[in-house]
Amino acid sequence: EILQEAQDVLENRFQTLGSEKVTLGENIDWHRDFKSGKAWPVEPKSKLDLMDLGNPSDVKVPWELSRFHQIWWLGKAYWLSHREIYAEKFRELVEHWIENNPPGRGVNWAVAMEVAIRAANWIAGYYFFCESQTLTRDFWMKFLKSLYAHGTFIENNLEYHWRNGNHFLSDVVGLIFLGIFFQDAEFGKRWLQRGIAALPEEME
Q1: Mean pLDDT by 10 residues, the chain (204 residues)
Q2: How far is CA 93 from CA 68, 89, 191, in A?
Q3: How far apart are CA 158 and CA 111, in angstroms?
Q4: Residue 63: Cβ-neighbour burial (10 angstroms; 0-12, 13-18, 19+)
Q5: First to last CA, the chain
Q6: Which of 109, 151, 172, 195 would disulfide-bridge 178, Cβ 3.0–4.6 Å?
Q7: Angle at 139 between CA 85 and CA 184, to 5 degrees
Q8: Cα maximum dimension of the chain
C-alpha cells in the first residue's frame, strides 16, 4: 500500500477533495483547478479573485496539491525501500514548485495558512530525505531559502480576525515548525517565540 501510494506520486497521479485519481501530466500546473480547468494567474494576491463566482471552480484544489502531503507518501516509501527514485521525485516536485511559485505571487501564496501547512510538510521532507546520496547541496540551499521565504511570509501575513479561527492557529503552528527547524538562527528563535506565545490561547 505504501509503495502504491508513492507510485501514484511518481506518476503525478493525485486524488484531491473527492475527485477520482487524475494524472496531471509530466509538469504539474500548480495554479490550476484540474477538476474545472480554471487556472489563476501568477500575480500578487491583491489582484487575485480567489472565489471567481462567475466561473465554477475551487481554489482549494491547487491549494491542496501545493500543501505537499505527497511528501509523506514518498518519504515512507523511501524509508521502506531505500530507493533513491523517491528522493529524486521529492527534489523534482519541490524544485518545480519553487520555479513556478515566486514568493508572494499566485494562489499558493494568497493565504498564510496554506504557506504554513506546506512549510510543515517540507520540513518533514527534510527529515525523510536528508541522508539521500543523490540530493545535492545546491538543491538543499534552494530548499532552505524557500523555507525561509515561507517563514517570512507567515510572519508578515498572520491571519488575525475579530474572532481568530483555524487559519490563524495554522499560521502559529507553522511558525513553531519553522522556528524549531531554524532555531540556531535569530529569525528562527523569533518565530518559535511568537508561535509558542500564541498557541495556548488559540488552541482554547
Answers
A1: 96 84 92 85 81 72 94 98 98 98 94 97 98 97 98 94 86 98 98 96 88
A2: 9, 6, 26
A3: 9
A4: buried
A5: 37
A6: 151
A7: 120
A8: 49
Rounded CA gap, 9 and 74, in Å? 7
Report the half-sphere exposure of 204 (CA within 13 A, side-chain side).
Answer: 3
How far is the C-alpha of 34 from the C-alpha of 30, rounded, in Å? 10
Residue type, 70: Q
3-state secondary structure (DSSP) of residue 193: helix
* Alpha helices (H) along the chain: 2-10, 60-66, 70-81, 84-100, 112-129, 137-156, 166-181, 186-203
Grid cell 502504491 is found at: 4
Q: Which residues contact 157 (CB under 8 A, 6 or more apart)?
A: 112, 115, 171
